[in-house]
Amino acid sequence: MPDTAPTGLRFPCETPPAHDAAIEVAPGVLWLRLPLPMKLDHVNVYAFDEGDSWTIIDTGFASKKSKALWTDLIAGPLGGKPVSRVIVTHHHPDHIGLAGWFQTEHGAELVTTRTAWLTARMLTLDPQEAPPAETLAFYKLSGMDAALYEKRASERPFNFADIVSPLPLGFTRIKQGDEITIGGRVFDVHMGNGHAPEHATFWSRDDNLVVAGDQILSSISPNVGVYATEPMADPIGEWIEACDRLSLLAREDHLVLGGHKLPFTGLPTRMRQLIENHHSALRRLEKAIAEPKSASECFSTLFKRNIGEGEYGLALVEAVAHLSHLYQTGRATRSLRAQGGAWVYQSKG
To answer: Distance from the CA of 293 to the CA of which of 29, 39, 43, 323 falls in 20 to 30 A?
Structure first.
């Protein structure tokens, strides 16, 4: 979704930390930022002071650069104290990438949801040298551009193991309704969904901190997509349900520490925006498919901007997710186009 600055939000720290530095956003809580080699060029990580060690939430990619940065961060802003625990909000590589490295090289405990751990471990153990037939079929059914399809079909695909360290056996599970102590604060654990299954968020009982991962971001809406692994998933429905549920917890004074962009306050406003963002997209899409369209033919309606090759994959899975939600909730029909074999969707209205 478009990266626009929302109204009604406040940003206590408008300048993010350099990659070798940290900003204290609350007593005993440091905001760190690691680089990513993509358009969204960073991931936020938070370190909580445990006295003689640190708990960190999320990790960045597994790369030589990230490992070197972590070595410098531990020696510098973290004062030479070890990382004794890693909490991972969800299974995406920029969040879980170095969790296994912290376990094996630093002796840290890994804490995450069962779904996140199982998914990440499965994907790291399943490298592919060529795109699976199911993925290629999914691309065709989604109406992927023919030239891009041929390029993707001939390339080695992205593999989780390329940027995620091996995960050894053993982790500590968290689930909905748990409480967990981090840096002397007691947090309630609430699960999000849609962007990633069983995405953990943490809500402090002792002050105004919310650690939100990618479930709640200040100025972008996280990617919500359907993939070949579960082509009839409904992440849009799951996303809206999670946002509705989490919005009941939101307070104006909450300081939200997200996985990307800036920490912010004004959470009730942001929750309304995140929910309306997808309802509005669905309404636009429903009008746009008065004549049958495939997912790739709906980019301009959904995103209101040109989609380049680097963004095409994420745009495609998000377009599929929105169209499939309309189909699964009875607001659209679906049929196979005779030429090319893509699913096309048409509104019932």
So the answer is: 39
